[in-house]
Amino acid sequence: MTQKLNNTNVAVYAGTFDPVTNGHVDIITRASSLYEKVYVAVSDHGRKKTFFNLEERLDAMNKALEHLDNVEVVGFTNLLYQLVEELGAGVVVRGLRMTSDFDYEFQMAEMNHNLSAHFETVFLMARSEHSTISSTTVKEVAGLGGDISRFVPAHVQTMLEKIYDRKNGVHPTRFAGSE
After folding, report:
1. Which residue, 68, 135, 60, is CA-closest to 97?
2. What is the set of active-site residues?
3. pTM score over 0.85
4. At what angle do helices 80-87 and 99-115 cross, to 10 degrees?
5. CB 171: neighbour CB atoms within 10 A?
6. Which CATH class is domain 7-128?
7. Which runs of E-coded beta strand occur in 16-162?
8. What are the two backbone dihedrals, phi and then psi, of residue 93, each rounded to the nearest 5 degrees?
9. 167 to 4, 170, 171: CA distances (angstroms)
C-alpha cells in the first residue's frame, strides 16, 4: 500500500555545506524554479567534524541565497526524513556531480524511503562547470593558497581567507576548540 506524499510543491535540500560552494548555489537556484518552497537544511549532527560551526554555515548560506525569495535556510540535528516530515515537504533534492556520487545517494534515498514513504528523492545533475567542485577540495585549495574565487561565493572566500594564514596554514585557534 502506497502512503500519501507530503506537499510535492515543497522541497528540502540538505547537506553540511562546509562551506557552501557555487555548485550548491546552482542546485538550490534550479530547485527554487521547480518548487514553490525550498528549505535548505544545514546539518549539524556531530558525526562530521566541520571547519565552520553551524551558525557560520547558516549565515554563509543565507548570504549566498538572499536573492531567492522562496528559499528558507534551516539548521537541523535529527535524521533527514524526520526534518522532511516536520516541514511537510514531499521532495528531497539531491545534487549529483559524477557517477561516484550516485552510489552513495542511491543508498541514502533507499534508506530514507524505508524510513518514510511520505516523500520522493529527486536528483539534479551538477552543471559541468561545477561537477568537480566539493567543499573538501575548496578547503584544500584555499589551504594551499590557491584561488577559489570561481568555486565559492565571495563572502565564503573571505571566510576561508580569515581561517587560513598563507604562511602557517590553518590558524591554530580554529581547531583548538575555540570557535
Report:
1. 135
2. 24, 48, 97, 135
3. yes
4. 60
5. 12
6. alpha beta
7. 37-43, 71-76, 89-96, 120-125
8. -95, 135
9. 57, 9, 10
